[in-house]
Amino acid sequence: MILLKIWIDISNAPHVRFFKDVIKYLEAEGEDLIVTARQFGDIHKLMNMYDIDFISVGKHGVSLYDKLRESTSRVYNLVDIIADENVDVALSKHSIELPRISFGLGIPSLYVLDNEHALAANKLTLPLCDRIITPRKIDFWKLMKFGADPNTIIPYNGTSELMHFKSFNYNDDVFKDLNLKLEHEKTILMRPEPSLASYLDADCRKSVLSPIVDELKEHANILILPRFKEQAEIFEGIDHVTILEPPVDTSSLMKKCDLVIGAGGTMNREAAILQTPVISCYPGDTLSVDQYYIDSGLMYRSINPNQVISKALEFLNNPHERIDLKTDDLFQIIIDNLYDLGKNGK
């Protein structure tokens, strides 16, 4: 049996959960893995929590200058690691550096995409990828405008968050394990916006959630999962508000809570999959992957604080019934294409 040498690059915290079962599966199959990860948010903590061996390479930049400088530096350092490894196939999700390095070194690459609004990232990567796995909900014409070859696009029904629950074991005692002091009967989990992301123009010391928290804290316990220190400081010292320190079992938290309100994307879609009522108040343009769940009745979206508050109170009293959703096996799609590329090339 011919084993493959596979390179996986992880550049954002949600990608750890996305790839963890792929990594464990490939390790069990005896494949030779190189996993690289940049220093950003909770990536390293999550890698350690899931017991994934990795090489730390590079970090995140805040300003445009920093982003360019750090990405350029990361390409330089990754090339030194990968060049002599005889990698058969490379895999990533929205990594800026992996497609560029794979293209330069002649390594077939498999790319997972779920954000058609990440303009800079998509322009820099999609023209260089050998295969692109993307939700069917995303308009292929938008990807082609970035330079993606339509023959490389592999659509599926669903969103990437399906991967997060392949081996999910619900912990009903998650509140107790976190020693939460909850005074209200109902509990809401909130996630602030991705203020440091290149695709969103936002102030990291403010949050669209603030007026929503101020009103709903009188009706429910509020759990805040900040992305970084400055976001935590926004909500410190508010009654009935608990600031969670990651990493935590967010999947069990979302399932246990009565409602999720998110100004980002990933956790909102995870909540929809778990059938927990969820409200998106993401301040940017609506992503196609969010629209998928909105159209299915599993997500409500508004950027009007009063509308969010009104819908939240409605959900707390009358959560929606379970909604059946037909999706494809994204895990198997990734594995099949990874092996096909690794053994047969482009």
UniProtKB/TrEMBL annotation:
Source species, domain of life: Archaea
Q: What InterPro entries does UniProt report for this protein, alphabetically?
A: DUF354 (IPR007152)
For this entry, the protein name equals: DUF354 domain-containing protein
